[in-house]
Amino acid sequence: MHLMDNCCDQCTHSAATPCPDYLLCRTTGPLCHESDACKEHIAAAITRVTYGDGDLRITVGMSTCGLAAGAQAVYDAVHALIQERGLPAKLVPVGCMGCCYAEVLLEIQRQGYPAAIYDHVDAQRVPPIVDAYLCGDVSGAFALRSKTGQLTGEAEVPLLSELEFFQGQVRDAIENCGVIDPTSIEEYLIHGGYQALTHVFQDLTPDAVIAEVAAAKLRGRGGAGFPTGLKWQLCRQAPADHKYVICNADEGDPGAFMNRLTAEGDPHKVLEGLIIAAYAIGASKGYIFVRAEKPLMAQRFQAAVAAARRYGLLGDAILASAFHLDVDVVLSAGAFVCGEETGMMAAIEGKRAMPRPRPPFPATQGLWHRPTTINNVETLAHVPRILAHGAAAFTRVGTPRSAGTKVYCLTGKIARTGAVEVPLGTTLRRVLFELGGGILAGKAFKAVQTGGPSGGCLPSQFLDLPLDYETLQAAGSIMGSGGIVVLDETTCIVDLARYFLTFTTAESCGKCTPCRDGLEQMLALLTRITEGEGRAGDLEQLQLLSETICDASLCALGRTAPNPVLTTLTHFRAEYEAHIHEKRCPAHVCAALVQGYHVVAARCIACGRCLPACPVAAIALRERPALPGDTGVRTAVIDAETCIKCGHCARICPVAAIEREW
Amino acid sequence: MSDIEVTIDGKTVHGKPGQTILQVAEAHGIHIPTLCHHPRLPVSGACRVCVVDVGRPDRLEAACSTPIQDGMTITTNSPRVRRSRRMTVALLLARAPVDAAPPEPPPPNAVRDLARDLGLDLDRLPFPPAGPRKPVDASSPVIVHDPNKCILCGRCISACNEVQNHRVLNLQHRGSRTVVIAGLGQLLLDSGCVSCGECVQLCPTGALTEKLPPEKERWWDRDPVTTTCPYCGVGCTLDLYVADGTIVNVRGNEAGVENRGSLCVKGRFGYDYVTSPDRLRTPLRRRGDHFEAIGWDDALQLAADKFMELKRTYGPDALAGLASAKCTNEENYLFQKLVRTCFGTNNVDHCARLCHAPTVVGLGHAFGSGAMTNSIHELLDADVILVTGSNTTENHPIIAMYMLQAVHTHSAQLLVADPRKIRLVDHAALWLNHRSGTDVALFNGLMHVILEDHAFDHAFIAARCENFDAFAASVKPYTPDVVAAITGVPAETIREAARLYASADKAAIVFSMGITQHTTGTDNVLALANLALLTGNVGRASTGVNPLRGHNNVQGACDVGALPDVYPGYQRVTDDGVRKRFEDAWGVALSPHVGLTETEIVDAASTGQIKGLYIMGENPLMSSPNLNHVKAALQRLDFLVVQDIFLSETAQVADLVLPGVSFAEKNGTFTNTARRIQRVRQAIPPLGASRPDWQILCHLAERMGYSMTYPTADAVMDEIARVTPIYGGVSYDRLEGAGLQWPCPDHHHPGTPYLHKDRFSRGKAVFTPVAYTPPAELPDAEYPYLLSTGRLLQHFHTGTLTRRVAALRTLVPECLVELNAQDMTDLKLADGDLVQVSSRRGALVAKVKQSEASPPGLVFIPFHFHEAPANCLTNDALDAQSKIPEFKVAAVRIEKLPVEAGDT
């Protein structure tokens, strides 16, 4: 019997004719008739979902990060091995459990035994790993989910929860990621999926749903932190013939991938949140607006919507209620501004994505002029837990104004890149240095950029900042979607600001003057400064432009775009001044500020490769005094007058004997 | 109290909910600068120069888009606001630098004006001009696009996409690379631009301008003369900019009631003809096969003597007059008065006979009035618009503009019934592509379905209509299957269309020549009237049966009596009481007999029954069907006087030619298709010795012994008002602004936006059973193709005016015969090949063009081109009731010609 098949003749509900308890019957046992035989049928079906017809479950992290690390080859190797050995195993592609730094991750579990997780797996390692595990040896594993003392080597392998990366994490939005098969609605169901929805339809009015979400103090995880309950309330109140709900999955910030990770690993959780949101506001149509550059996320959503439709969770009379909803997955047009809600609605309507003034706000006049609620992927992923377990469970962690957990993405010069989910209010220091493992290669911490290109750059004095919406704003940055880009001492702060402005200038939609033309002028100034052409007054001009762009831009993208410049001008002004007044790049990044090149005679082997490489013939070989222990008597020399500082010689030198002078 | 109280710059003021800060500030005399804002356009909020401080530390708000809220404190001119505006304008000046020392007075440029107001020093701007100069697009004969002056305010794009719905202009790229492009970044000429110039009118910086020759520049220096467009029946209000007796530029009047500033390519750019070297500047008298110039005294005396002599010899009914749908109401009134008093006959008609005679007969019969029932703007609020036999985008572009706005902005559903795939089809919910001439069958089919569905308006029919049962029985046989067989429209589509139309709360029918120019023209109109009555769609706003009139004043010419059977105001000449009143008013005895129609006048001339003919501003030798027959008839006349501004095809066969003037040289009124009487104002003096037509008529009447003296045109209107009840309340002082829509019986009446509100003009409306009959001539083995004629957007009527406009000539230089791809293949034709098209009545030679608008078997030829006069082919078979010829259906043969044949 498959999970969703009828257990016996007495059982009459199905996707076509569901009863309100349809899902509970399938997962937690028959409720409408007592039968031990049926309970056994269902228990067996649940086991079959996990292990297939055998007793072994092997999962491979096949999220975008895993695939980039070579997961497909690993998956294929496992598949081949199963075929070859006739292993009684179910092979499952799963999402990412957050530790992208350890991909490719392979997990093996035999029914009744602890699961072992292996990191940095490649195809060659697959047979020995599987062989060892099957022989009861887990030595060399990355982590274990539990320990029973049944397997060899358990003592040396840490529990997953003991890993520094996982300590202090509280998982809600991404709890199933890397665990369940994201393409299987059955796996989501046996992990408690759609139980919140069942509860909502059976027990709660739309107003009660909104009250629960409001009591949970859930705030928009897309960046602005608007109270979700209030957003739903406003939309519910707006009179209209149709209402819409949109899931904003147009994740575009450089350094932010929590939406992709969530959707790739557990799309049904987001869909369940979306259906609950639609029920609460009275929407009859939903859209999931996915960034086209994240095709796997789009594919996962499409499959989830199709599965939900198949199981009667979308369409007419969902779970025998009077509620009707259909959902479409829409691919974004590939512009940053598509993530801005009015731009997004224009895109869904088939127009060029350009923001329009608010008010009217989407809650009263959104998609096709009708009331519309727009929630971020992560926001919706928190909704099922709030409804299933109550607001109190959600507010147990977090700060008084910002309850619950937040997923942060760690990128840049950090030891452990990936996604962590921690209570709001966790300090930056804890996230970076405990979970994230500190700065890569033992370099010194310089700053973090939070909130993507619209956020700000915070130096070490903010490391003990408890991360939430208000504290970040007070520090001059924003939560944004939760991307944290870590910068070490080798980062030039002016170059960084220029990088973010390059992004926002290119991604400005072109509609309003301050953002379109003001950012371009800022970028021109920053470029000039990094090229050693900075002038007195440039910083004041940058400040003035920033203020106008923040004050006068049409949408939030424009109003926040100068943030990287404003915060770095505040915290790293000296570094700007060094570029402008001393023509010096303290981080040794800005190539135009290179003073010149010289040859370290002791290393030069006089191979002569640099001579023809120099485009201006500024290099020659000269006799040199013999040095102790060497054989050469010649060295390359660079004529500083002729040199144009292109650096080509240094790049081709086989012994790194040519060095830059700063 | 619904008012909202706000404080602006320390002043407490009140506004209405939903009003923006800008609206409230303007209402209280507080100036806030704007660039992208325009009252006709949707709120954009793009330029950000209207920012004001509403007390938010994190941002300023755009006054144009931010609604007021109770208790809001608004500062419009603080240092923070000024700093932001100065920075924004400085950024715009880097994008679109302005000439620091422009010619005086400088061309309009809102950014330069704003920079000056904000005290920016144009010589010391903070940002250098961005990037290299971009190429200027001067490909269009009428519009120049200079991207170097563009501030990307988006007004042109909104104008093109949301006002006119042409969807040609758009933004390309993002960020600072953003540019305004036409089509796919093509030259304007190749982009599908229809040259309406809406973008030019709304561009605040001169990035999009009219293409004007050097001598016509600096038009902005002049005060405009506001007048009414001389082309189609929409009646757009124009501002004429004039210098040295020449029109140097034209803009749509933003307060114009029908057009609200918008114009089409002809209305905006079509005025070269006014001062064309071809204009007649002196009277001409025929000497053998040529003309000689003569003085006015001689000309008028000759005309008077000759007409009086013919009257004495052959009787009054040997004389006739053709009035003009292009002339003013005053002139048409005087013309018919002259014919009726001096000639002593009712033989007066005009080209309305060739366009909407069936409308006048049909709607007159069904409702009691033959005019457009509703107002143009009401289309915006219709739920369903049924357009049939009207290629509206080409012939009434501004009405088409409202249709497209109704569809795209107000969610109306468009239902197009037309054999050709006209442009409107692209915007239609449903297209009924019935075979030419099967209109009655089609509409009877729709009504059959509505009756079958019981979707008709029982209450309306019971209360306000007669003869329902006989009508209902008459449509019984028209089942969808029967109608499908006749029309070629699938039965299911017929059902769908019927249900769509019947489902509307407000359904408007719009039609034109495609309905009327048939031997069944009157039946076609009656079928439409039945359809509207059946669903109760008459007598309410945004409903009705709305004929679109083709000429600027064809409605007015009818209204003031240029018709053989009625005096001004549709009062019958056969009614003794009416005639008595006119005899009293005009002081002469009048003929009690109905006169001849235009087509009958031509026939009577060919048989020698009509001896003398006076034609004012009409060109039957291009516009009438079966031209060879017309030419023979006119040549048989003893005396033909043609009064025109050009030596038209008809004038060329005249005995005497009198030079009238264009619309720009005289005062008067036109009545548009929606019964709106609007002023025409003199902008330039008459050319040469030409005279305003109304003065010529007075002078001629004097010479024939009848006194017609009026100091000015408004005195003529006063007389019209006295004798014409529907114009009873009209006087020039009341026409200032929006004009008046008749009926306007007295000086207190506000005019009538829609007819038949509580009562039909005839009391109850009447259903008229009509049966399908095929057209008079259908394709056969000898003449296998079906010919339909019509207009093009860029040209007007017989081309007399538009083909003298260089830009329009450039846009469409010659006649192209339009054929479907299948027919092109069958005939082994390629675009540009020469063909001879012949019918039983004549032949023409022209190039062919493949057009997907034409269905297989149907050939379309515009009738603007004298070199290839389409009407030499058309059939002069008449509709028995209205005497309109069947222009829209004729059988023709198409033969490919060797290329050399055309090189003569």
Can you tag this structure with a few keywords?
heterodimer, A: 662 residues, alpha/beta, five-stranded mixed sheet, 25 helices, 18 strands, 37% helix, globular, B: 904 residues, seven-stranded mixed sheet, six-stranded mixed sheet, 29% helix
What is the fold's blueprint, element by element?
The complex is a heterodimer of chains A (662) and B (904).
Chain A: H1 22-28, H2 36-51, E1 56-61, H3 64-68, H4 71-85, E2 89-94, E3 106-110, E4 116-118, H5 126-134, E5 143-144, H6 185-190, H7 195-203, H8 206-215, H9 228-237, E6 244-249, H10 258-265, H11 267-281, E7 285-290, H12 295-310, E8 326-331, H13 341-348, E9 372-376, H14 377-389, H15 391-395, E10 405-412, E11 418-423, H16 428-435, E12 445-450, E13 456-459, H17 469-474, E14 483-488, H18 493-507, H19 513-530, H20 538-552, H21 556-560, H22 563-571, H23 573-581, E15 596-599, H24 610-613, E16 619-623, E17 634-638, H25 648-652, E18 658-661
Parallel strand pairs in A: 1-2, 6-7, 6-9, 7-8, 10-14
Antiparallel strand pairs in A: 1-3, 3-4, 4-5, 10-11, 12-13, 12-14, 15-18, 16-17
Helix pairs in contact in A: 7-14, 8-9, 8-11, 10-11, 10-12, 11-14, 18-19, 19-20, 20-22
Chain B: E1 4-8, E2 11-15, H1 21-27, E3 51-52, E4 61-62, E5 73-74, H2 79-95, H3 110-117, E6 143-145, H4 155-163, E7 169-172, E8 179-182, H5 198-202, E9 208-210, E10 225-228, E11 237-243, E12 246-252, H6 265-269, E13 284-287, E14 290-293, H7 296-314, E15 319-322, H8 329-343, E16 348-349, H9 357-366, E17 384-388, H10 392-395, H11 397-410, E18 413-417, E19 430-432, H12 439-452, H13 458-464, E20 465-466, H14 468-475, H15 480-487, H16 491-503, E21 507-511, H17 513-516, H18 521-534, E22 545-547, H19 554-559, E23 566-567, E24 571-572, H20 576-586, H21 598-606, E25 612-616, H22 620-623, H23 627-636, E26 639-644, E27 656-659, E28 668-671, E29 676-680, H24 693-703, H25 713-723, H26 732-735, E30 740-741, E31 765-766, E32 785-790, H27 806-811, E33 816-819, H28 821-826, E34 834-838, E35 843-850, E36 858-862, E37 875-878, E38 885-886, E39 890-896
Parallel strand pairs in B: 1-5, 15-16, 15-25, 17-18, 17-21, 18-19, 20-31, 21-22, 25-26, 26-27, 32-36, 33-35
Antiparallel strand pairs in B: 1-2, 3-4, 6-9, 7-8, 10-11, 11-12, 13-14, 13-27, 23-24, 28-29, 29-30, 32-39, 34-35, 34-39, 37-38
Helix pairs in contact in B: 2-3, 7-24, 8-24, 8-25, 9-18, 12-15, 12-16, 12-18, 15-16, 21-23
